[in-house]
């Protein structure tokens, strides 16, 4: 079994590096170890989304039963998205669960994740806090997601107002990321974020 | 699905993913089943089935009827792939001794890949599964002592080969459904399109088969299947359904709610 998984991944690996998406720098895969059980993926944030300009790194673990069971994938790069946990990077996507089919490939997975970044499914959330913001305050969601992209994924849009608010909290001894999470969760209401952090 | 936590306080200490846990439990159950039942079992008479239903009048009568109509049975692992596995085993087993039918099937199977690629399935994986499928079919064709029933049985109990065959048959089934989408749309409940149905119920491994799967596969391969139904229904007989309707069945399967095994007339 393990042998089938490794052989298949080897072939897929070659398929991805030859693909036109790689040529366009939209997706990328690298080996982490020699036995093809773990890979590192990368996807570019899709244009005209808050993730544009960012590069998102993924952890891909290939189970022994691959391709009959899906690869285990999670975001290493922190991201603000309704279907991705802002804490663990866990992903809620049907093809990584019960709708995986053996005819799919790493390339399909990476392209589907990229599509997920462009079209969130807030009614089937992984991160309830983000999903709520997405549904109730689209504009706030976009700004927050763009801010996370600039901080964690190398995106181009710094937001000085958000930076200042974080600074206010870090000056009080709160750790940078923790401050960002609290502010993001409370729609950048400094007072409520502070209250929550010190409660 | 998958909501991790609702309050902010939890955010920092729980990273538990519910879906992940459910999947893990599912895998565990699958593992227990697989340790108990081989992918395809040995040929057996109906005494074990009789024992299984001892004291159950309705079923006992049906086992009686079954043993009047069939000589023996062969069990398959109840892993959701049983229809595909039972069908391919029973059919390939017959091809071992039927060179004429083998020629017909070989030609059809060889061409089946182009069909799938034309329908938009990714060439890369279709080729992978088709290659393995054809490797098995070719071995069956050697016949004459070089590839025997025992070899086929061994091969079907090697998870890798066995599952590759299942996947390829799932693809052929999906291909047929999509090709004749207009017709099959009538059999799909809810608002799902045929393509959605294929993505959700046909292509993924472990998804159970229904009439629609059987009709599509038997038509695509032009192989008749007779399914004998053993359930709580009132008849004292095991009722037969032939797919596609009106064809001479070459594969006989026993259906009990949620599961298919092979029957030998």
From TrEMBL, chain A:
SMART domains linked: UBA, UBCc
Domain UBC core as annotated: residue spans: 4-154
Family as reported in the entry's similarity comment: Belongs to the ubiquitin-conjugating enzyme family.
Positions of the UBA domain: 157-199
UniProt organism field: Gryllus longicercus
Keyword Transferase in annotation: yes
Name assigned to this protein: E2 ubiquitin-conjugating enzyme
InterPro entries associated with the record: UBA, UBA-like_sf, UBC, UBCD4_UBA, UBQ-conjugating_AS, UBQ-conjugating_enzyme/RWD
Molecular-function GO terms, alphabetical: ATP binding; ubiquitin conjugating enzyme activity
Gene3D superfamilies the record matches: DNA helicase RuvA subunit, C-terminal domain, Ubiquitin Conjugating Enzyme
Active site: 92
From TrEMBL, chain B:
The keyword Magnesium is assigned to this record: no
Residues in OTU domain copies: 71-265
Marked site: Interacts with free ubiquitin: 215, 229, 231, 255, 260
UniProt key word Hydrolase: yes
Record-level GO BP terms: protein K48-linked deubiquitination; proteolysis
CDD domains reported for this sequence: OTUB1
Catalysed reaction equations from the record: Thiol-dependent hydrolysis of ester, thioester, amide, peptide and isopeptide bonds formed by the C-terminal Gly of ubiquitin (a 76-residue protein attached to proteins as an intracellular targeting signal)
Name of the molecule in the record: Ubiquitin thioesterase
Protein source organism: Gryllus longicercus
The organism's taxonomic lineage, starting at the top: Eukaryota, Metazoa, Ecdysozoa, Arthropoda, Hexapoda
């Amino acid at each position: 079994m393990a042998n089938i998984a490794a052989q298949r991944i080897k072939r897929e690996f070659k398929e991805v590096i030859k693909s036109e998406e790689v040529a366009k720098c939209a997706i990328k895969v690298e080996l982490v170890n020699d036995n093809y059980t773990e890979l590192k993926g990368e996807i570019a944030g899709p244009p005209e989304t808050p993730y544009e300009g960012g590069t998102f790194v993924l952890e891909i673990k290939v189970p022994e039963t691959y391709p009959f069971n899906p690869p285990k994938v999670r975001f290493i790069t922190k991201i603000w998205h309704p279907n991705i946990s802002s804490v663990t990077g866990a992903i809620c996507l049907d093809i990584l669960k019960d709708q995986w089919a053996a005819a799919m490939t790493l390339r399909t997975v990476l392209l589907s994740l990229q599509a997920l970044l462009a079209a969130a499914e807030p009614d089937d959330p992984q991160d309830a806090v983000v999903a709520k913001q997405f549904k109730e305050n689209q504009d706030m969601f976009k700004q927050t997601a763009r801010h996370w992209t600039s901080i964690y994924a190398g995106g181009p849009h710094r937001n000085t107002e958000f930076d200042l608010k974080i600074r206010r909290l870090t000056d009080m001894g709160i750790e940078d990321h923790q401050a960002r999470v609290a502010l993001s969760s409370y729609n950048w209401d400094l007072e409520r974020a502070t209250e929550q952090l010190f409660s | 699905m998958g909501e991790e936590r609702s309050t902010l306080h939890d955010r920092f200490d729980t990273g538990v993913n519910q879906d992940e846990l459910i999947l893990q439990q599912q895998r565990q159950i699958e593992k227990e089943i697989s340790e108990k039942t081989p992918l395809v079992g040995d040929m057996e008479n109906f005494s074990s089935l009789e024992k299984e239903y001892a004291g159950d009048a309705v079923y006992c009568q049906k086992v009686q009827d079954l043993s009047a109509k069939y000589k023996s049975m062969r069990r398959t692992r109840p892993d959701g792939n049983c229809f595909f596995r039972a069908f391919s085993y029973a059919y390939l087993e017959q091809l071992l001794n039927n060179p004429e039918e083998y020629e017909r099937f070989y030609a059809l199977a060889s061409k089946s890949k182009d069909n799938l690629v034309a329908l938009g399935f990714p060439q890369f994986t279709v080729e992978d599964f088709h290659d393995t499928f054809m490797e098995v079919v070719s071995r069956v064709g050697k016949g004459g002592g070089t590839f025997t029933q025992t070899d086929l049985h061994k091969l079907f109990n090697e998870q890798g080969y066995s599952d590759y065959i299942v996947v390829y048959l799932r693809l052929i089934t999906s291909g047929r459904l999509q090709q004749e989408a207009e017709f099959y749309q009538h059999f799909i409940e809810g608002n799902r399109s045929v393509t959605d149905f294929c993505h959700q119920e046909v292509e993924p491994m472990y998804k159970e088969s229904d009439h629609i799967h059987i009709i599509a596969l038997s038509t695509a391969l032009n192989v008749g299947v007779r399914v004998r139904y053993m359930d709580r229904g009132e008849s004292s007989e095991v009722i037969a359904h032939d797919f596609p309707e009106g064809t001479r069945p070459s594969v006989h399967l026993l259906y009990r709610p949620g599961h298919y095994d092979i029957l030998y007339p």
